[in-house]
Design a protein that fits this description.
Blueprint: H1 2-8, H2 12-32, H3 34-44
Length: about 45
């Protein structure tokens, strides 16, 4: 992929911040969908 090629020459801090933002987005999604996830979890347990 072209994205990995462009990151190769960059310092690792760039990659780390990218991973951090992805993690934050995932956490935000989980927080937003927590109610639905909890309902699903209760359904199966």
């Amino acid at each position: 992929m072209s994205t990995s090629l462009s990151l190769d020459g960059q310092p690792s801090s760039i990659r780390r911040s990218t991973a951090q933002s992805i993690l934050q987005e995932a956490l935000a999604w989980v927080a937003a969908n927590q109610g639905d996830l909890l309902k699903e979890w209760m359904k199966w347990h």
